[in-house]
Amino acid sequence: MKTTLTQLEQDIINQYQKGLPLCSTPYKAIAQALNSSEEEVLSAIQALDNAGILSRVGAVFNHKKAGSSTLAALAVPEAELDSIAEIVNQFDHVNHNYGREHGYNLWFVVTASDEQALIEVIAKIEQLTGYPVLVLPMEKSYHIDLAFNINFAESPRGCH
Amino acid sequence: MSNYTSPHNLQLSSLERQFVLLTQSGLPIVAQPYQYVAEQLQITEADVLAMTTDLKERGIIRRIAAVPNHYKLGYRYNGMTVWDVEDEYVSEFGQAVGRLPFVSHCYLRPRHLPQWNYNLFAMVHGKTTQEVQQYRTQIKDLLINVLQVRNDDSDHGIKLMTNDILTSTEILKKTGLRLKR
Fold it and tell me: What is the chain B residue with the closest CA to A61?
């Protein structure tokens, strides 16, 4: 089990979660920037990947360009939360679903090929759950990147 | 030089579609990952690099990156902070909140009065619930003069607050957006 990250591993995560250099040998470029070698960078990334600390090295899609999507919420009795969540999760159109502490206690993202399809999915969710869906599409983004700075100083030791 | 030409719209060409399918769940960790993609797609590495640049410019992919699993890094708590910001100030102050280093998304969304009066959403992440609460306080300090104070909607028995935080209790589903085969 991996418990602490090397400085190189920390630097790779914080600097390259925002994108790899777009060139033939990106790990060589990273090595140059971090004062390391291509072999060390490759083995560090491999170790992070093996430990599940990286979910992948790959493409990150722009949800907004993938069709029509919205944040949505349901207010359901606590006792029904799991069964209602199961109904919502059945939809391939739902890619996130979180239980949250609030009157609106089920929060999910619905994505469809276009707006009409999105409206239809939401209507179907309302019909199957019996509760009105609060529909909160993004009108404007004030922050475009999902990467945030990782604070390793306070990392708990037991990363599993 | 690359022979790659862009279709100039949001539609994906057949080659781009193959590229997306090949790269979305991860690239092999090898010295020349784009060469690997090139071999799979039977095009040149220069074409793969040009296509990647083009897909980024068209906004279809944000980046090709080392994507961390925040949960594994100790970020077990997320809080969706929501704010009722006066409309005339929401753009300026939304951008200020979006610049805070611990905010991962900051969006303007519609209100649905009377049951939902919040128009600004800022997602924060922390390793403890205290950390998440502290971030909420920092955002509140920033927004304190532009929050809308509303009378309670007594007809509906709803108490309208200027802000709230919705902490996650459980992840019920989480799959990254994927192009279907």
Answer: B61
